[in-house]
Amino acid sequence: MTATALDNVRIVLVNTSHPGNIGAAARAMKNMGLSRLYLVDPQQYPANEASWRAASAKDVLETAVVVSSLEEAVADCSLVVGTSARGRRIPWPLVTPRECGERAVSEIGGKEPTGHQVAIVFGREDRGMTNEELQVCNYHVHIPSNPDYSSLNLGCAVQVLSYELRMAYLASQEGQLPVFDDWDMPPATSAAQEHYFTHLQETLERLDFLQPGNPRQTMTRLRRLYARVRMDEMELNILRGVLTATQNYVCQSDKKVAELEAQIEALKA
Ligand code: SAH
Prior knowledge:
This protein is an alpha/beta fold.
């Protein structure tokens, strides 16, 4: 396959149960010019059925990357989009398949590749994606299907999103879409954001703002805030610096209190 900017978009299938759907996804991808497939903990793979269904897209299967967690599959991506057949309790920024295609192509730069990596993530056939998995994503995309029967077959959902990616890519070749490279800093990757969230949670617990046993709702809402903002590398580093300064300050204050207490004890004695 000829190399194109679409090579910087990966399709991630999470914990797929039917190997036929993996093959169907590979075929849908290759038809639309996508090449990079990531399989997170597939239930049956490799499998003959996947190869049959892939037809002439066996090369996509052969180069598929099998990993054990979603975090691994998207670590170097700056834009991660999750697909969902239904609404969730805490709604996340939602885009249409068309907007998803446009934002993805704008991130990778259709005409002049930026080198930024994008992931479109698909869930399990029976249960979709977990809330934790959906929270790793910047946006959610919902194919506006019939509300009375909204869940598409996994391979078909991959086809719809791959088609929109291709349409947006072709439009960018005619020079109609803006690219993400007019920014002065590269976007923060998923792995860097995960480190930031861990640091943030630790600091908030240290400040007694969060109870160590019960951080979930607040962290979910904070993650959603950052997902909307789309931090760049520099912004993320500044925020980490603020957290480190906060932790150092708390540590110093604790030391001073301990010293004063020791002095009081000494005076009493
Ligand atoms: N019963 C599951 C549906 C799983 S369908 C649920 O309630 O979530 C398998 C996968 O196909 C989904 O996880 C999603 O990745 C994709 N998919 C199916 N229908 C979709 C839709 N209408 N919009 C976006 N993605 C969809």
